[in-house]
Design brief:
Strand 4 and strand 5 form a beta hairpin. It is built from eleven helices and 16 strands. The model has no long low-confidence stretch (mean pLDDT about 95). The strands form six sheets. Strands 1-2-6-3 form a four-stranded antiparallel beta sheet, with helices on one face. A four-stranded antiparallel beta sheet has the order 7-8-14-9. Strands 4-5 form a two-stranded antiparallel ribbon. By secondary structure, it is of the alpha+beta class. The radius of gyration is 22 Å and the shape is globular. The longest helix has 24 residues. Bound molecules: ligand EPS. Ligand EPS binds next to helix 5.
Length: about 375
């Protein structure tokens, strides 16, 4: 695994930290580039009050000099503005003050109860602070660096929302990148902003009812060369690696690649993507039901991944739970939350796909500095053309 990263940080702690290792030297990188990705993650109609407080920005702590990577670990921090309001309740040292009210009414669907049992915590805040999807801001920072890296090889990663709740307007046929660009102009990342009104109405209705919503989004990568990942071992398969990365995003409960579940009910001839060759494209597939992977290896076709996100577990219309001290039946505790965060999750999905692809690319080509990796990839692309 050439690319490794860790994140740290509680939702209402001082900040989120990440350390990314494996990016070659001499990659041009700016905080502005990463901050734009962080901004994209904060958007989306239906987010909660927290997004009005934060304006996420990275500060580099290592790995960069005069706008270029050094090949050393890149450490970044995103300070939480909300920390100011939580200093007493989230103090790193000392004894809890009287302001600290333990969270003892676990929310069904959040990590509260399972985490409390696992780590023997009687204040479930000690679990929920880290389980919160706030952590994904750090992943988006890491993913942004990987995106910047992939761009150097003509690889673009994007996403769009397919549905929120039961609302799934038909998707226009069209280029994936075009859909992504249209999604950028929508308040819910749906690739047809003229539909925004319907989505907004649905979200407002859910909010009024004390409800939350889930949905489905698609993440894709174009320009990926064939040959990343491998069929030779289970953990080298690129589709397995992508699925794991996507499933690791908070609240994701389903991942499909290409046609996914739909393919199971079709005949083989309807599913498999016929092979073609042309002077300008080289090998290609006449369609892309398999979402850019065959046998655990990228095929050169766009990688297309679909993710299902469950509704956010914090509900104003709280569900039944149990008070962990008295064992009484109670309504679950409430925290400030979003009504829906699918548009944000799709940006996180982009980050995770970028991380997996940067890792797989470096695994195949190796190299410690950008010029070296680029030369190898270019030579390989020539080889593929002539194959
Ligand atoms: C989030 C920050 C959180 C939540 C949300 C994601 O901030 P706060 O808890 O202060 O409102 O808005 O987290 C959840 C929905 C969750 O279930 O944990 C963010 O930065 O994305």
């Amino acid at each position: 695994m050439p690319i490794r990263f860790l994140t740290a940080g509680e939702s209402h702690g001082k900040g989120l930290v990440c350390v990314l290792e494996g990016i070659p030297a001499n990659l041009q990188l700016s905080s502005e580039y990463i901050n734009e990705e962080l901004r994209r993650r904060q958007r989306g109609y239906g987010r909660g009050g927290r997004m009005k407080i934060e304006s996420d920005k990275v500060e580099f702590l290592s790995g960069l000099r005069f706008g270029k990577t050094l090949g050393s670990p890149i450490a970044m921090v995103i300070w939480n503005k909300d920390w100011e309001n939580w200093q007493d309740k989230m103090a790193y040292e000392g004894e809890p003050s009287e302001k600290v009210v333990p969270f003892t009414r676990p929310r069904p669907g959040h990590a509260d109860l399972s985490g409390g049992i696992k780590y023997n915590q009687r204040d479930l805040r000690n679990i929920l602070e880290r389980a919160s999807a706030r952590e994904t801001a750090a992943r988006v920072a890491v993913g942004a660096v990987c995106k910047r890296f992939l761009e150097e090889f003509g690889i673009r990663v994007g996403s769009y929302v397919v549905s929120l709740g039961k609302l799934q307007p038909p998707l226009e046929e069209g280029e994936l990148l075009k859909r992504h660009e249209l999604a950028e102009t929508s308040q819910v990342r749906f690739p047809d902003p003229s539909r925004d009104g319907e989505f907004i109405e649905l979200i407002d209705e859910a909010r009024e009812k004390g409800e939350s919503l889930g949905g489905v989004f698609e993440v894709f990568a174009v320009g990926v060369p064939p040959g990343l990942g491998s069929h030779i071992q289970w953990d080298k398969r690129i589709d397995g690696r992508i699925a794991q990365a996507m499933m690791s995003i908070q609240a994701i409960k389903g991942v499909e690649i290409g046609g996914g579940f739909e393919l199971a009910s079709k005949f083989g001839s309807e599913v498999h993507d016929e092979i073609g060759w042309s002077e300008d494209r080289g090998y290609f597939r006449h369609r892309n039901n398999l979402g850019g992977t065959e046998g655990g290896i990228t095929s050169g076709m766009p990688i297309v991944v679909r993710c299902a996100m469950k509704p956010i577990p914090t509900l104003t219309k709280a569900l039944r739970s149990v008070e962990i001290n008295t064992k009484e039946e109670v309504r679950a505790g409430k925290e400030r939350s979003d009504v829906v965060a699918v548009p944000a999750a799709s940006v996180v999905g982009e980050a995770m796909l970028a991380i997996v692809l940067a890792d797989a690319l470096l695994e195949k080509f190796g190299g410690d500095f950008m010029e070296e990796v680029k030369e190898r990839v270019e030579r390989y692309r020539e080889y593929v053309k002539d194959y």
